[in-house]
Automatic annotation (TrEMBL):
Its cofactor is Mg(2+). GO terms for molecular function: inositol monophosphate 1-phosphatase activity; metal ion binding. The keyword Transmembrane does not apply. This is Myo-inositol-1-monophosphatase. GO terms for biological process: inositol metabolic process; signal transduction. Gene3D superfamilies: 3.40.190.80, Fructose-1,6-Bisphosphatase, subunit A, domain 1 (3.30.540.10).
Length: 269
């Protein structure tokens, strides 16, 4: 039976976990070798996950925590667990160790194979984006709404890519083609870093288009729910409804996805 949501407790737990990292931000040396870099990322993940689990144990004693690396029991729309937490504890941890803003705490509660509640907290900006399926999306207590732009020259689009592109020439070509398509179609194109925060920004109207070729579900789910509940259009690059096995994601202000698909050439596959 699904656990009754104690939304204030969830939001407080996410805030607490994120705020733990503020005192040390920009006070540790930027790592200059792979061993130090890897160890810092592992320490961040462990510290953040522990803080979240300790705060949420009382309200969710029987809800399992599954890795954002998607073990078999989590990798699909028909998981073994009817409800579970999926946590990519710090999205944008690279920004954190590089002394850059844009790192967030990401948490999503999955039910029946779909995101049901999501929170993305930006400690540096003191902004907590969150959404419940069917209940709208918010930043702190303010409702979110996507932009209403239709003029492509005014549109701010972002692109993302997964790791390991050098090992997949086909995907590398698709990613390169996607950036070219965005530059051709929209006025400004950027990459901001954390997947979830960029998707939440589409829901907030700060960004107008998010586009990624390839499959990156674990990074998408929290922001995808927030953007969708805010009213953004969520689909694939070819205009199909997004699903777990989709190998692209296009999230836009209402109507801009269709405009983009009409303007772009045949995708590289």
């Amino acid at each position: 039976m699904p656990t009754t949501l104690n939304i204030p407790a969830i939001l407080a737990a996410v805030r607490h976990a994120g705020n733990l990292f503020l005192p040390d931000f920009r006070h540790s040396p930027i790592p200059q070798d792979m061993a130090t870099f890897t160890q810092q990322l592992a320490d961040i993940e462990s510290r953040c996950l522990t803080a979240l689990q300790e705060r949420l144990a009382q309200d969710f004693p029987a809800t399992p925590w599954l890795s954002a690396d998607f073990p078999d029991e989590a990798a699909g729309e028909q998981p073994a667990h009817p409800e579970y937490w999926l946590c990519d504890a710090m999205d944008g941890a690279i920004q954190y160790v590089q002394h850059l803003p844009g790192w967030t705490i990401n948490l999503v509660l999955m039910r029946a194979g779909q995101p049901y509640f999501a929170a993305i907290y930006d400690p540096f900006g003191q902004e907590l984006f969150w959404a419940e399926a069917g209940g709208g999306a918010f930043v702190n207590e303010m409702p979110l709404h996507p932009s209403t732009k239709q003029d492509a020259a005014l549109t701010l689009a972002v692109f993302e890519h997964s790791h390991g592109l050098a090992d997949d020439p086909s995907l590398l070509a698709r990613v390169g083609g996607s950036v070219t398509d965005l530059l051709r179609a929209f006025g400004v194109v950027r990459n901001y870093g954390p997947h979830g925060l960029q998707l939440a920004y589409v829901g907030a109207g700060r960004l107008d288009v998010f586009y990624q070729e390839g499959r990156d579900v674990e990074n998408w789910l929290p922001g995808l729910l927030i953007a969708r509940e805010a009213g953004a259009d969520v689909g694939t690059a070819d205009g199909q409804p997004w699903h777990w096995s989709a190998d692209s994601l296009l999230v836009t202000a209402p109507g801009l996805g269709a405009t983009f698909r009409q303007a772009r050439p045949t995708p590289i596959r």
